[in-house]
Write a structure and sequence with these properties.
It contains 9 helices and 11 strands. With 310 residues, the chain is α/β, with parallel strands linked by helices. It folds into 2 domains: 142 residues, Rossmann fold (3-Layer(aba) Sandwich); 136 residues, Hect, E3 ligase catalytic domain fold (Alpha-Beta Complex), CATH 3.90.1750.20. The chain has a 5-stranded mixed sheet, with helices on both faces. A two-stranded antiparallel sheet has the order 6-7. Strands 8-9 form a two-stranded antiparallel sheet. Helix 1 links the parallel strand 1 and strand 2.
Length: 310
């Protein structure tokens, strides 16, 4: 044996244990736009898993909310079960809004996963439950959720305004008593109800009060828009002021000092414009409220159907 020979002890290299990762993705509908978003979510998170040392992608959980089943979040429940069974150690998701539908749900889910020793990473916000204490996580999630809700609300309002301005809003064709939608969603006259609308306007111009019209409709056995036998005064009053009966629809009308959109000749009219305006003038005359120098006050006497002209 050579005197220069040396023997070195080489300890075994510890086996690097791979962390089992699950990806969770969710979209709010099965529209093409949302499905494209889903594809992007899965691709981005898969790449993130692939380039992270010691991470092993075990499963991908995808929920697509559509109809009644959308509220069940079947894949989310399956993910929780896999975490409980120790099949998943890390859950990654795009952002907080994809992980839960509201702050309460997010926090409840995080607490469940924490009990099972599961780490959750929100890729977009850069949040990792392994690096953030509970109180700070709650504070961050609540502030982000509030900001997202405000942003979502503004986006919804902007969408309403854009569709209203373009004339594409479905609200232009929202049906009311006297109308129904055809196969294309357009408003058309429903004659069996429209004749009752015309009768209501005619009775009012003949001198009937709201109560008088209510009694007359009930005496004739005419059912309310919801199929009831007894009419409410408000239903009749609203009917007499509804511009939809002359083919006009107003959207986003929050008051005379706010901009809004008006669609004229939007659909067939049940009442003539002249008759409608005559009713509005008559309503002003009969109003029990008058404006004076001292502000708004009520008249001494109310209009009575006993004075009607037959």
């Amino acid at each position: 044996m050579s005197e220069n020979r040396r023997v070195h002890f080489i300890p075994p290299r510890p086996v690097q244990r791979e962390k089992r990762v699950g990806i969770y993705c969710r979209v709010s509908s099965n529209s093409m736009e949302q499905l494209n978003s889903l594809t992007n979510q899965v691709s981005a998170l898969t790449r993130l898993t692939a380039v992270t040392p010691n991470w092993l992608l075990v499963d991908t959980y995808i929920d697509i909310a559509s109809g009644k089943s959308g509220s069940k979040r079947i894949e989310f429940i399956r993910m929780l079960e896999d975490c409980q069974a120790k099949n998943i150690e890390i859950v990654i998701t795009k952002n907080i809004s994809r992980f839960g539908r509201d702050t309460v749900e997010v926090l409840e889910s995080l607490n469940k996963l924490k009990e099972h020793g599961v780490r959750v990473i929100f890729e977009q916000e850069g949040l990792d439950t392994a690096d953030t204490d509970s109180e700070m996580m709650i504070s961050i999630i609540e502030s982000i959720a509030q900001a997202e809700n405000e942003s979502r609300s503004e986006n919804i309002k902007w969408g309403y305004r854009r569709r209203a301005a373009q004339g594409t809003s479905k609200l232009y064709n929202r049906k009311c008593y006297g109308y129904e939608n055809d196969i294309d969603g357009e408003l058309i006259i429903k004659e069996d109800e429209a004749k009752n609308v015309r009768l209501t306007f005619e009775l009012y111009l003949r001198g009937f009060s709201i109560i008088g019209i209510k009694r007359e409709l009930e005496k004739r056995g005419i059912k309310t828009p919801t199929g009831k036998e007894n009419w409410s005064k408000r239903t009749i009053d609203v009917m007499l002021s509804n511009e939809k009966y002359i083919g006009v629809v107003r959207l986003l009308n929050a008051g005379e000092h706010q901009e809004h959109y008006v669609s004229e000749n939007n659909h067939p009219a049940i009442i003539s414009k002249e008759q409608f305006e005559a009713v509005q003038e008559e309503k002003k005359k009969r109003s029990n409220v008058v404006k004076g120098k001292n502000g708004v006050k009520r008249k001494d006497k109310k209009y009575s159907s006993k004075r009607r002209i037959d």
